[in-house]
Amino acid sequence: MVYDISTLNPSAQNLQDYDEYEACDSASFRIIIWPLLLILATNYGWEPAGTETPFIYESDEAKLGKWEGGYCSNDGQVVTSDDAAALADALERALMDIPDQPSDVNMEDLLRLKDLKQQGLNVFGGWKPIIVKFIKLCRKGAFYIL
Predict the structure, then answer these.
(1) Strand order of the sheet with strand 26-27?
(2) Lowest mean pLDDT among 10-14, 65-69, 93-97, 122-126
(3) Model confidence over 99-108: pLDDT tens digits?
(4) How many domains are contained in the chain?
(5) Angle, CA of 22, 32 and 1, to the nearest 5°
């Protein structure tokens, strides 16, 4: 899940219990869709800048190790404003190629990475409204991945 950084208090020590979640602008994706969405964006020109270190790592780097800048965990890392804007630009370019109708893609096959190349943009068929909402979130600036 991603949250607009401007509406969430970054000094909260335990974001899992943070009551302001419901008041935040957010987008949620199934565990298999999020990495596919990032791949889609890279296919349309997004060059990931890497995420900023989650505050939990900053407070305990010795125990947790050095942050690698990844996007596919939910550690509270921050996607910067510039990176979010570039992500939005790429997804906007992809929108015209995404089918309007939902597809019958078998998620179990995707989880086993079967048929991914063959299915292509069909994976996102019918998802345009959700992707548009995420693009709007990206346009607001930096966001957390939780």
Answers:
(1) 26-27, 2-4, 143-145, 77-79
(2) 10-14
(3) 888 877 666 6
(4) 1
(5) 15
Could you give the 3-state DSSP secondary structure of residue 71?
Answer: coil
Nearest to 55 by CA among 22, 9, 24: 9
Q: Is the pLDDT of residue 14 over 50?
A: no
Angle at 30 between CA 59 and CA 54, to 5 degrees: 10
**Strand boundaries in 28-81, DSSP class E:** 77-79
Q: Which residue is listed with tokens 């597809």?
A: 103
Please give the residue range of the domain that contains residue 68: 2-145
Instruction: Taking the CA atoms of 94, 69, 143 and 139 in sequence, report the sign of the dihedral they define.
Output: negative
* This prediction's pTM: 0.77
